[in-house]
Amino acid sequence: MGRPLGVAAALLLLAGGGYVAYGIVGDDAHEEDAQVASAREPLTAFLTAWAGHDARKAAGYTDTPDGAASLLTSVLTNLKPSRTTTDDGVGRSEGPGKVRFPFTVTMAVPGAGDVTWSSHARVSETSGTWKVEFTSPMIHPQLKPGQTLALKSIGSRAQVLDAEGDPLRAESLVGTVDPVSGKGASGLEARYDDVLSGGGKAGKSLVVADRQSGRAVRELTETAPAEGRPVHTTIDPRVQEAAADALSGAEVNAAIVAVDPRNGHILAAANRPGGFNRALEGRYPPGSVFKVVTAAALLKGGLKAESPAPCPKFARVDGQRFENQKQFELPSGSTFADAFTQSCNTYFVDARDRLSDTELRDTARAFGIGGGWDVGTTTYDGSVPVATSDNDKAAATIGQARIQASPLVMASVAATVKAGTFNQPVLVPDAVQEKHRAPEELDGAVVGELRELMRATVTSGSAHALKDLAGQPHAKTGTAEFGSGTPPRTHAWMIGYQGDSDLAWAVLLEDGGSGGADAGPVAERFLRNLVR
């Protein structure tokens, strides 16, 4: 752009051959108008792309595209505006190649309504190209480098409560709340965010936040606070504490679930470590704890506790070898009660011919397995498919093959034996619309025999870790193979219930060894903690 030429006279040739002065203009005025018009083009493009929520495109019109894109993306991600409008004002030259423009931004922000602010942008020319100078205050005048815009909850967020009305102390159940947005990010906090936050329609303010820590450093707007309602759970704090303490020394991922057999109320759901709620959502082969279901099917078919039950080291099915843990065998004359209490795999595998291809699935339904449970939180409710081959059925009798269950499912199996009927587990009663009802019923005589078998497993079988405890514990151990290693790795299980109180439970140790030797001591600590 040339230097100003001062005042020039523009002459118009008249028809008669003379000249007349047409006017005198300031060349400075023409220079300013042209400069502002040139500078406005990238600014308009920048604001238009911002209003279209295209951070990368908007940043392309700035002198620092990466920094501009990063901050704009952060702002748009945090605020999630449903609509953005921008309006630029009259530009003013600040010298050759520099123009300053005022502009306003209005965003429709969920939870905070329409938020408007004014700012200024400087547009400069370098090597013949006009660019918007990017700075944090240009995006919002209150921003400093390293900061962003975010939302903060200013309402009264309610809490997730235990059965006694106190704040629930169970991280994997409760979940987390995003420190900037104030929204539930996981667990019950996420599932019931609208309830706990009062609907999420108010109670949000626009804040300046530190991009590293997420901490709000300055509040920019105020919104009427929303009052949330607490979420009540069935967790018994005493039982939850006993379960969490029992897992405190576990060196592997582990879970304990406890339920009330009378009504299915979940009394405890402890996980170690926290985070994933394996107690309710985990999917595992249950191994020999599933023999409770297989035993129910066999007893229904006429088998008795005193029926002969050969238990060799190995059983072979179409070339596949099954064996007992550590290849033990029971002496001649052993009974079905012996096979159950000592957890003899080979007997159960060889007893598969007593069962139809659908028998295990149908019996599992009487325990609620495979139904759609309305618990008030996310759960995995188990799967027992129809057998597709002799090998498939053989493995299913001992809780392997395609059989899958969560610790909650197996705790409910024990609870069903205690109650005599399936009562669907429940965690948040107010949220349950329709409980799952088992399409099959257990015969009373079968239930009675299962109770005797589970008690004998404690007094003279593989659950002997519990035999000195008060409360008449009934139990079943399980060692479930998984993976393709040689030898296979195993999950350790123990499930059971107390004969003199309304408590059923399941213990799982992922990749934890043996049900009796490893899960047993954890179950013993849990039950002993309750006595204390």
Write the topology of this structure.
Layout: E1 7-13, E2 19-26, H1 27-51, H2 55-59, H3 65-79, E3 83-88, E4 92-93, E5 98-109, E6 113-126, E7 129-132, H4 136-139, E8 147-153, E9 160-161, H5 171-174, H6 187-191, H7 193-197, E10 204-210, E11 216-219, E12 231-232, H8 237-246, E13 254-259, E14 266-272, H9 278-281, H10 291-300, E15 314-317, E16 320-323, H11 336-341, H12 345-350, H13 359-366, H14 390-397, H15 407-419, H16 444-460, E17 473-482, E18 489-498, E19 504-509, H17 515-531
Pick out its properties.
alpha+beta; Nuclear Transport Factor 2, Chain: A; Beta-lactamase; 5-stranded antiparallel beta sheet; 30% helix; disordered N terminus
